[in-house]
């Protein structure tokens, strides 16, 4: 008998307390939920806590997810969004953006030597950091649509499900958020907005 693979099948088994199915869903979505929470909060500690809470909610309250309303992914992002907003409201401030771990000594010397354009890589890293900082500076309702649609490549309809709002609301907020983000990058003095590789639709690529 083939192992279940679809989110719906795995969810049904998780609701019946199947640990293997829960583990499969966790493996499938943990990284995405963590990255969403990190981009929203700027804090790895908050992102870790939010990710844990999302999957605890799935495990302990799986009945709250209604497949008829949309896919499991949008439900998980919606739970993560609510958790992040709760933490930010409690803290009354945005946590500072934390540096990525250095992973010193984890890469063999020959892999490091294979980098043929270190200056280019450094420039891309600086652009990424500047973009993350600019995203964190956006008001929350603009930040969340940028993160979902541009960083996680959700459609407007999927983002609307995750945020529990109208598709038109997502579209208008996203247009405004992209303009604000470009302005913050232009005036921040670290990187020009043109360096972000924004495609004709305004998506970060």
Helix vs. strand class: mainly alpha
CATH superfamily of the largest domain: RNA polymerase sigma factor, region 2, helix turn helix motif
pLDDT < 50 runs, ≥5 residues: 94-116, 118-123, 189-205
> What is the terminal-to-terminal distance?
41 Å
How many individual β-strands?
Answer: 0
SSE layout and pairings?
Elements: H1 7-15, H2 19-41, H3 44-60, H4 72-91, H5 109-113, H6 118-136, H7 140-151, H8 156-163, H9 167-187
Helix pairs in contact: 1-2, 2-3, 2-4, 3-4, 4-8, 7-9, 8-9
Characterise the protein shown here.
With 205 residues, the protein is mainly α. The chain folds into 2 domains: 7-91, RNA polymerase sigma factor, region 2, helix turn helix motif (Rna Polymerase Sigma Factor, Chain: A); 117-196, Winged helix-like DNA-binding domain superfamily/Winged helix DNA-binding domain (Arc Repressor Mutant, subunit A, Orthogonal Bundle). The chain has 9 helices and no strands. It has helices at 7-15, 19-41, 44-60, 72-91, 109-113, 118-136, 140-151, 156-163, 167-187. Helix 1 crosses helix 2 (19-41), helix 2 (19-41) packs antiparallel against helix 3 and helix 2 (19-41) crosses helix 4. The longest helix is centred in the first third of the chain and has 23 residues, at 19-41. The radius of gyration is 19 Å and the shape is globular. The chain starts with 6 loop residues before the first helix and ends in an 18-residue tail after the last helix. Residues 94-116, 118-123 and 189-205 have low confidence and may be disordered.
